[in-house]
Amino acid sequence: MVNPLVSIIMGSDSDLPVMNQAAEILNSFGVAYEITIVSAHRTPKRLFEFSENAHKRGIEVIIAGAGGAAHLPGMVAAISPLPVIGVPIKSSNSIDGWDSILSILQMPGGVPVATVALNGAKNAGLLAVQILSVKDVQLRKKMLDYKSGMDLEVMEKVKKLKDG
């Protein structure tokens, strides 16, 4: 088994349908990852242990999804030296997702969290790939191919509309 480079974490299993989008992207690029639950509020000891040790286990990027008060990405970023990508999730107790967005986006100076759109785990996966591609030429080639594929897809739609 290949050691994971990315850790996808979430505050609750109810976040899994959203966070699976990041896993799908990482799978499509052949990036090894792990996925688990780390609740900032319900398992604070687990949060600290995970955050202090992820880099020691070979993890290079953390994708952290959370809804509501959404403290998970920020708390992980406060402890871990790794880049953290926050995914705000519109949860059942959410204020249209704004509580999650602002909790992750409005981090104090010195504790950065890259924040994607509400329920934007797909983009979190893509950003993780881009971060990893800084030192992995093969992964960078896959990202360039992915972007070319998006271009081709749009141009096919343009042609289809034009030919109408």
Distance between the termini: 50 Å
Helix-and-strand structural type? alpha/beta
Largest sheet: 5 strands, parallel
Given the structure, what is the number of helices?
6
Number of strands: 5
Rg from C-alpha positions? Answer: 17 Å
Helix content: 40-55%
Physical arrangement of strands within the biggest beta sheet: 2-1-3-4-5
How would you describe the shape?
Answer: globular
Q: Catalogue the unreliable spans.
A: none
Give the topology string: H per helix, E per strand: EHEHEHEHEHH
Could you tell me the strand content as a percent range?
A: 15-25%
- The average pLDDT score comes to 96
Task: Tell me the layout of helices and strands.
Layout: E1 6-10, H1 16-29, E2 33-37, H2 44-53, E3 61-67, H3 72-79, E4 84-89, H4 98-105, E5 114-115, H5 121-132, H6 137-163
Parallel strand pairs: 1-2, 1-3, 3-4, 4-5
Helix pairs in contact: 1-5, 2-3
